[in-house]
Amino acid sequence: MKKLSHLNLDAPFFQAPLSGYTDQPMRILARQFGAPLTFSGLMLDKSVLAPGVLEKPHYAVIDQEHPVGAQLLGNDPDIMAQAARRLCDYGYDLVDLNFACPAPKVTQKQRGGFLLTQPDTALKITQQVRQAISCPLLLKLRIGYDRSSQSQENFWYICEQALAVGIDGLVIHGRTVQGRYRDRADWNIIAQVKKRFPHAFITGSGDIFTAEDVADKLAHYDIDAVLIARGAIGNPWIFPEARALTSHLPKPPPPSLTEQGQTMLHHLDMVLRLYPTRKAVPLFRKFCVHYCKRHPRRKKTQSALISAPDPDALRLTIRNCYGL
User: Fold this and answer.
1) What angle do CA 256, 259, 263 make, to 5 degrees?
2) Residue 159 annotated as catalytic
């Protein structure tokens, strides 16, 4: 059992926030398959404060999801504090401040990973948000803006000072902002963070695609938890598999084609209940690409699913391809 502030988590991994993916259906499915904590997609602070935004399918929270976290993006301490307070009041159980996103459209507006070049601003945001909310607060960082010595100094300074003002943990992605998603994530630096701050809750992120990746990182780097991001898209089975391996139990057998198809239909039904058809079908196609990775005839199945023009055709194609 892992304890993150007052949250009791019965497994050492989370479902990461993923823009465009981790909406309510994906979060519910992850919880049903054993994720102890999920996150909504990345939220801009100003959007959180706009009327009606938190009622949208990507952000709306229902009872069966808890605990669920929100990841917040912005660069104005006052607005970030107001947005964080609203998220907690709305029902989110945890807030994660994003000082990690490497997307140019984010960094060019001096948000996300750009804030690693502005440690004083990053810490002012952190302090004001901490004062504004009582729910757990995490900080998502990369290991630097780049590989320069100044960038490394900024990284360690932000880690140290953020913990000093009372955040509940750090989420560290093992690449620099400029490195984006190239090369391999450097988990040695993530381990160094835990060694330097042994009493802090440290979560590692980067290159987690299988349950074996989860178990390996936890076994070799002495951290508290692992963030599962792209490896969970269209693959909720990663959660029971990771639960088994991190508990030193045999890995469950792969899901049968029948189970895969039933899970897809369940996911599709949740999507259709939340979105109009014109949005639901294109949205679900993004998941189909990933679900098909477990199918023995991956390319043929993927082509058939992507070509389905409407919900009825999509259901029929799933039934045909998965033997239902």
Assistant:
1) 145
2) no
> Over 108-148, what HEC string results?
CCCCHHHHHHCHHHHHHHHHHHHHHCCCCEEEEEECCCCCC
CA distance 106 to 108: 6
> Distance of alpha carbon 309 from its chain centroid, rounded?
30
Closest to 99 measured CA to CA, from 42, 56, 58, 54: 42
Burial tier of 265 (Cβ tally within 10 Å: 0-12, 13-18, 19+): middle
> Who contacts 315 (Cβ-Cβ below 8 Å, separation ≥6)?
265, 268
Distance between CA atoms of residues 7 and 41, nearest Å: 20
Tell me the HSE value of 104 on the side-chain side, using a 13 A CA sphere. Answer: 0
Q: Say how far apart CA 157 and CA 123 lie, in whole Å.
A: 9
Residue matched to tokens 């960038």: 151
Catalytic residue among 88, 101, 288, 321: 101
CA-CA distance, 237 to 26, in Å (whole number)? 12
Per residue in 266-275, pLDDT tens?
A: 999 999 999 9
Tokens linked to 305:
């699913």
* Bond into 67 cis (ω within 30): yes
Entry field: residues in the chain: 324
Enclosing H/E stretch for 2: strand 2-4
Q: What amino acid occupies position 229?
A: A
How far is 69 from 166, CA to CA, in rounded Å? 18
Contacts of 307 (CB under 8 A, 6+ apart): 317
Contacts of 53 (CB under 8 A, 6+ apart): 43, 47, 59
Given a contact cutoff of 8 angstroms between Cβ atoms, the answer to whether 257 and 316 are in contact is no
Can you read off the two tokens belonging to residue 83? 């947005």
What pTM did the predictor assign?
A: 0.93
**CB 199: neighbour CB atoms within 10 A?**
7
Residue 155, pLDDT score: 96
Q: Residues 15-65: pLDDT tens digits? A: 999 988 999 999 999 999 999 999 998 999 999 999 988 888 778 898 889
